[in-house]
Amino acid sequence: MQETNNSRVNQRIATISAHLNPPRFSHMEGSSGLGRADCRAKGGSTGFKVAILGAAGGIGQPLSLLMKMNPLVSVLHLYDVVNTPGVTADISHMDTGAVVRGFLGQQQLEEALTGMDLVIIPAGVPRKPGMTRDDLFNINAGIVKTLCEGIAKCCPKAIVNLISNPVNSTVPIAAEVFKKAGTFDPNRLLGVTMLDVVRANTFVVTTKLAIGLSFFVVN
Ligand SMILES: NC(=O)c1ccc[n+]([C@@H]2O[C@H](COP(=O)([O-])OP(=O)(O)OC[C@H]3O[C@@H](n4cnc5c(N)ncnc54)[C@H](O)[C@@H]3O)[C@@H](O)[C@H]2O)c1
Ligand SMILES: O=C(O)C[C@H](O)C(=O)O
């Protein structure tokens, strides 16, 4: 049974690795660091090493829980500027395989990032009533910049997945940080846009209905 699970996990890692290093981009091989052999946690167990920055927040906590449930994850680092000891204790009590470690405050950022394959960033502030996305930018831009400088230094080949809004501006900020550090790889920098996409679809449909137009599919 364990063997079947392992082979399923190995298959999924191979699929993800193939996606990251597709054959048609073979000329780029060598520049991309995430291969099957790299996906090993300390102690040799197979799996991805994942850090969540902003792990104690409204998005960070359920995201940490999902990552702890994910059989592809062998090491999970939870970083925040507040509350990580409690969140880490709770998440680590789940009876799944990933080893969970908590990191609190800027002085532990580098330790949290070292050796990671994937860094997910929901760190920052969310909008409060009356705030615009521009208001978020003023705060979150600086936070994302600092975190990405840490990534460039400690895990330059990690995949970076930005959630902090405004994501259409935080992704370019991350790109500029990585370019400056000489570590930029567009295949490894992602932003979560699903919320804005479904929100836009809903607004379009609502407006169409309000002015008496029918709709079939909005996308
Ligand atoms: N992309 C999307 O689809 C999407 C959807 C919803 C929210 N968001 C954005 O995600 C972000 C987080 O939202 P939330 O509801 O979890 O907010 P939250 O306030 O509940 O959590 C944010 C967390 O970030 C932490 N944090 C702040 N500064 C930090 C720093 N310098 N380093 C590390 N951690 C830091 C805070 O301590 C907090 O725990 C916001 O910017 C929000 O706008 C994005
Ligand atoms: O900026 C917002 O739209 C609020 C919240 O952070 C979200 O992304 O929904």
UniProtKB/TrEMBL annotation:
Domain annotation Lactate/malate dehydrogenase N-terminal: ranges = 49-191
Please name one Pfam family that this protein belongs to.
Answer: Ldh_1_N
Q: Which GO terms describe its biological process?
A: glyoxylate cycle; malate metabolic process; tricarboxylic acid cycle
Instruction: Please list the GO terms describing molecular function.
Output: L-malate dehydrogenase (NAD+) activity
Q: Does Oxidoreductase count among this protein's keywords?
A: yes
The name of this protein is Malate dehydrogenase
List the top taxonomic levels of the source. Answer: Eukaryota, Viridiplantae, Streptophyta, Embryophyta, Tracheophyta
Q: Which InterPro entries match?
A: Lactate/malate_DH_N (IPR001236), Malate_DH_AS (IPR001252), NAD(P)-bd_dom_sf (IPR036291)
State its location(s). Peroxisome
Q: Which source organism?
A: Gossypium lobatum
Which branch of life, at top level?
Eukaryota
The record's GO CC annotations read: chloroplast; peroxisome
